[in-house]
Amino acid sequence: MPSPTSRQSWIPLVVLATGVSMVVIDATIVNVAVPAIIADLGLGATDVEWVNSIYSLMFAALLIPFGRAGDRYGRRRLFALGVAVFLLASVLAAMSVNGPMLIGVRAVQGVGAAMAVPMTLAIINRVYVGRRRVIAFAVWGSIIGGMAAVGPLVGGWLVTEHGWRAAFWINLPIGVLLLLGSLRVPESRDGHAAGGDLAGLVLAVLGTTGVVFALIEGQKYGWLEPRRTADLFGLRFESVSPVPFAFGIGILALIALVVRERRRERAGLPVLVDLTLFELPSFRYGAMAAVIVALGEFGMILVLPLFLQSALGYTAFRAGLVIAALALGTFLAGGLVPPLSKTLSPRTIVRIGLGLEAVGAAGIGLSLAPDMGAWRPVPWLLLYGAGIGFATAQLTGVLMADVPARLSGGASALQSTVRQLGAALGVAVLGGVLVSGLGSAVERGLADRPEQVRTSAARAVEESAGAAIPALRDPAIHAVAVDAAAEATRRVTFITALALLAGVGVTLLLPRTPVAQEESLERVAAGGPDTGGRDLDI
């Protein structure tokens, strides 16, 4: 393998980081484009929900199977195939003529993303070692954290200037460059990987899909009592909600998967999910911290744009400019990780990052007000973003630090799944806090109004998560709704801060990365005495 001191050797990192950027931005950019899509294609409420949900479901459900497929068949090969699938689906999405077509190609986009994303981290973990790996992980982590905040800004600009189809067409030139660039990425695989665990594959897909569906759709359909009628794959749910059934099936499938994989492992048979990864303290506690980081980040990106656009009347682009401060802080902090890692341990940097996130989240909450200027939350967003940059960038390295190179694909997919579950949990929990807070605050604010008016306004604001506020014609009711949005959003930020403080506690369990390990990794990369050293095919 060429020494990564030359400019050419960093080409794989550039290609992989660009691939992650395309996928992460696309995951958030569509949220901004939804109103324009509705107007153009005449989508119904169910269609709109599935345009977003189907992508997340397919992405989360297939991460683990494709991670193992990359170990077996070649990580670069699967990355390039994933980019090609994602690119084809993007073109078809831009050409969509109706809701079912758009939903279908969004599902295919999720498949392509599930192929490509785990391979990026797996290849980085295999190609770069020592100090160069720290830099590579910092770049990868900053991309994951920052691009989620850049998506609304890019989406707002594209939709405003060029229409919603541009949000998909933009992937065409990027995808073509990625396919060409993938030729410069080293191939790697696990020569000992084996397939044949079809039942494990089914259980993994069923379990992940059920849990993620429940977390995403819980607020829409209700967890216990149904909030609305649901029509899913020909099954109509009127008196009961599909959410508890999906969640229960998902949990049972995951339990069955764990039992099955343990038995196959003891019998010496190939497994889909290598559960021994959780025996590594760095992976186990790093995964716990990753859930908390994802919960806070994606929950915050959910509620802040809603408040800025619905309560304060900002355009999507202006709201994106405010949120971009978070991305700026993330990228700046990510650049500071490599020099800091020379004097601070990885767990210390992660701890600092989570602490900054907690302070930033609390500061954002304190700055929120119905009459606030756009600049007021920006310093706190910068601080919050800096925390993400420190925590996410170094947490990636901690998670993968002790993972054998030959298991990189499976480990990368597993940590990506954990992050996806954390993001879904953040949307579910913090979104639930926001919605319930909106309804109760409007009810209190309109206590002197007739019950019908009070209930109607509260329901409209609650069910729309605040999106109905601009349409409220009565100035007094509108003012109450804006105050309610500020109060509910503030509550979400404070809960986020508490969760992040809990994450600081988890970092106390993270081990220090021994220097001897880095030296061992250097020997592995040089083809030394390790099973990973003979897996690389360049």
TrEMBL record:
Pfam family for this entry, one: MFS_1
Presence of keyword Zinc-finger: no
TM helices/strands, residue ranges: 12-38, 50-66, 78-97, 103-124, 136-160, 198-216, 242-259, 285-308, 314-337, 349-369, 381-401, 421-442, 492-510
SUPFAM superfamilies xrefs: MFS general substrate transporter
Keywords, ordered alphabetically: Membrane, Transmembrane, Transmembrane helix, Transport
Compartment list: Cell membrane
Stretches assigned to the Major facilitator superfamily (MFS) profile domain: 12-514
Keyword Membrane attributed: yes
Membrane topology, record value: Multi-pass membrane protein
InterPro entries in alphabetical order: MFS (IPR011701), MFS_dom (IPR020846), MFS_trans_sf (IPR036259)
Protein name: MFS transporter
Organism field: Microbispora bryophytorum subsp. camponoti
